[in-house]
Amino acid sequence: MSAPSVDELDEEGAIEAGAALARRASGGGPRPGIWELAWPSMAMFALQSLVHLVDFVIVGSLGTEAVAAVGVAVQFFNVLFAVLAAVTTGTVALVARAIGAGDRDEAERILRVSIVLGAVFAIGVSCLIPLADRIVAAFGVNAEVVRLGGSYLRIQLCFTLPFAVAFVIGSALRGAGDVRTPLAIGVAMNVVNVVGNYGLVYGALGMPRLGTDGSALASGIAFTTSAALSLWLWRRGTLVLGARPPADGLTRARARRILRIGLPTALEQGAWQAGLWLFLRLVAHYGTEPVSAYLIGVRILAFSFVPGLAFSTAAATLVGQHLGAGEPDLAARSGWRANQLAMIVMAVVGGAIIAAAPWIAGYFGAAGPRTVALTITFIWILGAAQPLMAVEFALGGALRGAGDTRFPLVSILSGLFVFRLGGALLVTHVLHGGVVAVWSCLLADYVVKALLLAGRFRSGRWRHVRV
After folding, report:
1. What are the percentages of helix, strand and coil residues in the chain, rounded to 5?
2. Highest mean pLDDT: which range of 372-376, 409-413, 448-452
3. 88 with 114: CB under 8 angstroms?
4. Are 405 and 460 in contact (CB under 8 A)?
5. What is the largest CA-CA distance in the chain?
6. DSSP state of 338
7. Lowest mean pLDDT: which of 104-118, 120-134, 147-161, 292-306?
8. What does the domain layout of the chain look like in residue ranges?
9. Sign of the CA dihedral 14, 18, 19, 23?
10. DSSP 429
11. Residue 94 to residues 101, 103, 227, 441: CA-CA distances in angstroms?
């Protein structure tokens, strides 16, 4: 169950060099390195987190009800984002396999099918537009929040198609090893989003003053910009994956392969969202201050997840490409190395979070001595969990890149529902412990998931998963 030693991992350089020579002899190119894949993804995810914070500050100036309205609408939209993983996870795994095997035409066919699946998903989601007010009301908020949030959600749902198309193309490019193009497109999208939010919320820069609706419209215009750039580059043939294969590549068999791999990840993401909501309900049992401290911690998680998401992307791409090239040992070494680097980086992040806890608590809006004290305590718990989160990201990404998407779902159900929620229920209703003990169940959750994922990756069963 233990990971390879440092000496074993150091052998990767010589083995990788020999494999690279073989690939060049057969017409293939060298594989990108883990850092080469990770840093652009890290930059992109960090930029997205920063832009979301800017959006929050802009909308926050409109008042508490505006913040609540946008928060509820965005939370529901994030669930849709998670469901789209049914397409994008399979896209990454199959594109990476095809690129690793030197079959670029097949990778391009997979992308075509994925775009169609993403479009079908978007059209289905658009049917929810008339239900926007009811969806927001289901969160139990007041009438004004329902009015603002329903209008915000309606506008965002109108832009589901460009959102889905851009997300699918970006995922396929990452599977092919191109992480810089999604970064460049992401920069353009986020610039449009920030400028649009400022102009359309406040009525600045010659734009109409639309309040919260302006923030939703700005996000939609940003999604459209990203999709337009992605499609334009794709149709021009300037991307690593082009639009060359004939339409006969649009087969049900390819669609089934994509969904067979991706559906467990969609279920995993849905379960994760549901588990977080249930955990929040348990924290609410202790009053307003613990809820405020927890929500501040959730905002911080958006930043601490950045390196984990980047190494997850790198691990998925490299494991998939090595398996496609018939190099399972290099796939394993890539997964373990991504895990090592992720743990080191996120341990540093965790230390920084713990050291800066008092400043972070104040900056993110903790008010009152009890709320500040609880927020600092929760930040310490989050900091301690960072290396364990790294294992979930890196090895979870490696398994998904191999097409082994069912086991990460098992780990989520075990860690989140049995140990985090089960432990929190035990602490709250049986042991009658405090909220800090409830929060500490987070650590049990991440320990269990790390052990399960490490054991699965060590077993090597992912090498033989049918994709």
Report:
1. 85, 0, 15
2. 448-452
3. yes
4. no
5. 67
6. H
7. 292-306
8. 1-29+265-467, 31-250
9. positive
10. I
11. 11, 11, 22, 36
Q: What's at 397, amino acid-wise? A: G
Query: Tokens for 28?
Result: 């293939």
Tokens describing residue 18? 């020999």
From the list 185, 205, 187, the residue with the least C-alpha distance to 196 is 205
What mean pLDDT comes out for the span 253-270? 90
Nearest to 212 by CA among 266, 136, 283: 136
Burial class of residue 432 in the structure, from the number of CB atoms within 10 Å of its CB (0-12 exposed, 13-18 middle, 19+ buried): exposed
| Mean pLDDT confidence for 276-297 | 78
Neighbours of 326 (CB within 10 A): 12
Helix (H) or strand (E) holding 326: none
Q: Is the pLDDT confidence value at 260 over 80?
A: yes
Burial class (CB in 10 A: 0-12, 13-18, 19+), 103: middle
Assigned token pair, 424: 């929190």
Q: Which of 459, 449, 377 is nearest to 420 (CA)?
A: 449
Residues 160, 152 contacting (CB under 8 angstroms): no
- 352-362 pLDDT, tens digit per residue, is 888 888 887 77
Task: Tell me which DSSP letter residue 211 carries.
Answer: T
pTM of the model: 0.81
pLDDT at 230 over 90: yes
